[in-house]
From TrEMBL:
This is Sugar ABC transporter permease. It comes from the Bacteria. The lineage of its organism: Bacteria, Bacillati, Actinomycetota, Actinomycetes, Micrococcales. GO terms for cellular component: plasma membrane. One of its GO terms (biological process) is transmembrane transport.
């Protein structure tokens, strides 16, 4: 249809829009109400310890506080004293490097073990899974004690095997006496205790990869390496990202393994990580204000290191 303007020109009538406006989706508030009690409980449970840490970091503790005297409020003096110390930044650098190395090694070995679990027959898979579960379920103190016996400079089986293989220089070698070999032993222990979680988690993700897609890629000429990088890895990436994120958090805050190894005669000042550094400040030196300040710094450092992975997870979830 057309319409006539005052000039007499026939102008085509506007056509109705072919694209219908999509109705605005209403937000269902029920899920938010369902998770509200859990969120409130989590915030309440975190508010007290974090708030107490903040208050403690702004107070000075000494001998008088052991007899009931209130601690003196010093504001940010503890932060200034701690963060202007070279000892803290040496420990921070050491902890970050140690954390990233352990997390990467654990992730790589866990993925390789998961691929092995996927490839072996059922009976071998069951044996490997039981072995991984036993290693994972072993109490931490017992596990570290066994490893300390193995690396003992007098009766350790590691030195005995190395000497038998012709490395005479390892006779009576003290693995915990120098920082480099100390952290090598600590890495072996931490990776050994962490790999089962990564391997079993990644194996569970591998079971969800479509076999038809892998078969089609093989028929198209893709090698196993190409299938892994282009099909398997993108499929299991969400699980790998979460596992790697957890490993960074756990390895940055490692304490018990390092403390137990230090108790065997290791040089404490050269092998301190953030966890043992906080323990030494608080329990060893009675500097609870400084220990609380470093604890809050570790919390902030954990957020900084893990934020890129959290952001990627959020982007993948939105996609």
């Amino acid at each position: 249809m057309t319409r006539t303007e005052t000039t007499g020109t026939r102008v085509p009538a506007p056509r109705p829009s072919s694209v219908a406006t999509a109705p605005r989706r209403k937000t269902n508030p029920l899920p938010y109400f369902l998770i509200l009690p859990s969120v409130v409980a989590l915030l309440v449970a975190l508010a007290y310890p974090v708030g107490w840490q903040v208050l403690t970091s702004m107070r000075e503790y000494g001998l008088a506080q052991q007899f009931g005297q209130p601690a003196t409020f010093v504001g940010l003096a503890n932060y200034v004293e701690i963060f202007t110390s070279d000892d803290l930044w040496a420990v921070v650098a050491r902890s970050v490097v140690f954390c990233l190395v352990n997390a990467i090694v654990t992730l790589v070995l866990g993925i390789l073990l998961a691929l092995l679990l996927k490839a072996v027959p059922t009976w071998a898979r069951v044996v490997l899974q039981v072995a991984l579960l036993l290693a994972w379920a072993m109490p931490l103190v017992a596990a570290v004690t066994v490893w300390k016996w193995m690396f003992d400079f007098r009766t350790g089986v590691v030195n005995w095997l190395l000497v038998r293989m012709g490395f005479e220089q390892f006779a009576g070698h003290g693995w915990l006496a120098t920082p480099l070999s100390f952290f090598l032993v600590a890495t072996i222990i931490i990776v050994w205790m962490s790999v089962p979680f990564v391997a079993l988690s990644v194996y569970a993700a591998l079971t969800q990869v479509s076999g038809d897609v892998l078969e089609a890629a093989s028929l198209d000429g893709a090698s196993r390496v190409q299938s892994f990088w282009l099909i398997v890895l993108p499929t299991i990436r969400p699980v790998v990202s979460v596992v790697f994120l957890l490993q960074i958090i756990w390895d940055l805050r490692v304490f018990a393994q390092i403390k137990l190894l230090q108790d065997s005669g290791a040089p404490v000042g050269e092998t301190n990580l953030l966890g043992t550094f906080i323990y030494q400040l608080g329990v060893g030196s009675q500097d609870f204000g400084g220990a609380a300040a470093v604890s809050l710094f570790v919390l902030a450092l954990t957020i900084v290191l893990t934020w890129p992975y959290v952001r990627n997870l959020l982007k993948e979830d939105e996609a």
